[in-house]
Amino acid sequence: MVLEKYTVKTSDGSSTIFVPDLDETYHSTHGALQESLHVFISEGLENRSDLKDLSILEVGFGTGLNALLTYRAAAELELKVKYTTLEAYPLDWNTVRLLNYTHLMQMEKLKNKFEQMHTCKWDVFVELDSFFAIKKLKMKLQDVRLENEFDLIYFDAFSPTTQPELWTEEIFASMYRSLKPGGVLVTYCAKGTVKRALKSVGFLLQSIPGPPGKREMSRAIK
Ligand SMILES: C[S@@+](CC[C@H](N)C(=O)[O-])C[C@H]1O[C@@H](n2cnc3c(N)ncnc32)[C@H](O)[C@@H]1O
Questions:
Q1: Which class is domain 36-92+108-221?
Q2: Whole-prediction pTM value?
C-alpha cells in the first residue's frame, strides 16, 4: 500500500513530509533542519570528527536531509565519509524536489548532489565526490546483518509510538554488532523504554540536551 504524503513547513521554515495515515512527520515539527543539524551533525558527526575517515550507517534515508547535511559537513570539516543508508519505502524524487533544503541552506550548488543522492543506484557505493560515497540499501532494518563496520549510526526511524518494532532490544543488539568498538549511535529519541533497551544490549548511554522543542536526545556508545 502506498501512503499519501504531503509537504509541510516546520517552525524553522524548513519543510518536511507528513504522512496522515501514520499521523507522523519525517522530522520534528519544531524544525526539521535544526533537528537534523543538532542530533546527527553536532552530536553525531562532529563528535566523531577526530577520526577523519568515517563509516556511517543511517536508519531511514527518507528525504535525504541527513545525508545532504553530512555531505556539506564532511566538505567543511575535511572528512572522508562512507555513508550507508537503509530505506524500506523510498520517496520519489518528484516528492523530494519540493522540499526547500538546498534553497534554505543557501547552497543551490548542492542541488545536483541532492538529486544524485536520490536518483543514484541502490545497493552499491556511488562516489559523489572524492570525500563522500553513498550506498543506499533498499531493505528493512529488521533484515540487517552487519558486523563491526560503522563508526557512527544515525538512528532516525519513525517514533516508537508509530513503529515500536524498530525500537526493540533485538534491533539495538543488531545495531551494536554493526558498530566498531567505540562506535556511537545517536537518536532524537529519549524515551525511557528506548534508553533501557539500548543499555540492556551493552551500550553506555548518554542523555544529552535535544534540539529546540525537545529536552533530551540519546547518544549510545559501544
Ligand atoms: C523519520 S523518517 C527518516 C527521516 C530521514 N532520515 C530524513 O532525513 O528525511 C523514517 C524513515 O524510515 C523508513 N522506514 C520505515 N520502516 C522501515 C524499516 N522497517 N526499515 C527501514 N526503513 C524504514 C521510512 O520510510 C522513513 O523514510
A1: alpha beta
A2: 0.97
